[in-house]
Fold these 2 entries.
Entry 1:
Amino acid sequence: MWVVPTPIGNLEDMTYRAVRILGEADLILAEDTRTSSRLLEHYQIRNKMASHHKFNEHRAVERVADRIEAGEQVALISDAGTPGISDPGFLLVRTCVEKGLDVECLPGPTALIPALVNSGLPADRFVFEGFLPVKKGRQKRLSELAEEARSIIFYESPHRLVKLLGELVTFLGADRNCCVCRELSKLHEENLRGTAEQLLAHFGENPPRGEIVVVVQGTSKKKGEQLPPSEI
Ligand code: SAM
């Protein structure tokens, strides 16, 4: 099975290999066939698609694995970025691995890596937290992260960004350096760097739109260690 990353905004971020694999596959499994048909249309890929999303993946994995076992070339895509990264894909990959079937994920678009690199925060070691739980377990996770020394990456929806920044102030400290990356690879891309408190004040006054990644500096044992001056 091929796991094929697709653009997170800019259609030019599709790789040559991703286009070829999607064109050659016997079946493309897509999170949302309507969303993916626009991408396939753009690259003139006319191929069979079936839906594979979080509501049917539990039921579907065995059937899909049987088809792969029978020799079909299956390519898995999600609405944007890399399948399995805060998107359906993990269950199917795990099932294929358990059955000894080949799995190959192509290198390609995902939101967390450009966000981390754009942030200017240490990128040598990092943790990816994805979306925090909306309610239960959210505060526990945040308090555990207070002592995390590596850079921390969160996915967050625009309407919860201010809440998250407030929680970062509370649990990790007002002066913790962060970067809010919005609309990566799109026309209105913005990477705003500052302390949690500064970013909270900014987005409190300017409610954000679009897709968002938040990168947070890990805790530093050296007191007073600062990043370059904030941009807000
Ligand atoms: N599979 C995707 C990946 O590899 O990054 C992630 C899918 S997840 C359902 C969607 C979240 O990813 C968004 O809420 C946002 O946090 C992040 N994201 C996706 N595209 C983005 C973009 N263009 N700019 C900023 N964040 C993005």
Entry 2:
Amino acid sequence: MRRSSLFLILSVLLMSCSATSDNASNSSAGGGEAAITSSIFGSMPDGRDAMLFRLTSPSGMMMEVTNYGGIITRWTAPNRDGTYDDVVLGYDNLDGYLKENPYFGAIIGRYGNRIGAGRFELDGETYTLATNNDANHLHGGIVGFDKVLWGAEPFTEGETVGIVFTYTSPNGEEGYPGNLSVMVTYRMSPDNKVEFTYEAMTDKATPVNLTQHSYFNLAGTSSDSILDHELMIMADHFTPIDSGLIPTGVLQPVVGTPFDFTTATAISSHIDADDEQIAFGLGYDHNWVLRDGSEEMKLAARMYEPTSGRIMEVHTQEPGIQFYAGNFLDGTITGKSGAVYEYRSGFCLETQHFPDSPNKPEFPTTILRPGETYSTMTTFSFLTDGMGS
Ligand code: GLA
């Protein structure tokens, strides 16, 4: 852990323990102080308590997050009139997440997205992973990082509030080699930005590809379709997939395809195009190859919702981004405050290395070796169209 013990003591002292069970998710802007409160969210099947932390920013932004899966359960952002609404999908209580969670709000690991046939070779050995998506391995397997209880340490740094989550994934978990220590930090600053920092170290070479799987609906109602949202992705290529959603290995130009989001385009425009790639993804469920593949922070995507005026910008050090349009939502999940999550009522923008990289030597590597530190950052910033962005 990097934080000094003084800082630890300070953050514990600053942490108030008042309950956070009310459903305050609509509010007006700001004026308050940076604060974190905590309460018990519920009991895990093994009897351990899962906690719920509420982070509030002087701007008026509020996020609730549990150490079960690092799941963000609520996250408010302003519309053009300055009203803060909850813009993420999820459940009111822990039981909802324990029963059935299509990765709402969660940390994903060890490997975001798919590894073909749940197998890969590394240093002359073949590793077999848990398969949980037909024949493939998805989002870390049967019990991925979205389903474990993380250590959680809240902190404040002036007007910034955050939480450090820690988890040690044992050698062999879901089939992966090496003991992997993971630290994920959420940091909310008063400019309505949340920074996600992912760090990991291993004692044996292993693939690592960590991400965040929040489902957003920027209209703030979380049950309407997201098809009128307008998306720009800073990518001239995407990675086409086979019928099992595994990349073929090709980097295909987006120009002239339904995957061209180089300028702001309504999601509805081509999501039902007569196109083999759209058919395989049931819409958009693909990885885009960012134009700037460097490890510098750069704008990856911008989503705009015209009725509320909300804009979300994603900046990242990662080379790719998965845009998933909620094609597997089908109205069978009832979430927060009775919201029914219909087909395509939430979207995900998952920054990442490309799917199936352990089997695609031509893709940027995802292998972490002993002595190296995995370190990557992604930010989600909320603006409005009244701000001249
Ligand atoms: C990712 C995958 C999708 C789907 C969702 C969650 O976006 O690519 O296929 O698994 O997560 O359902």
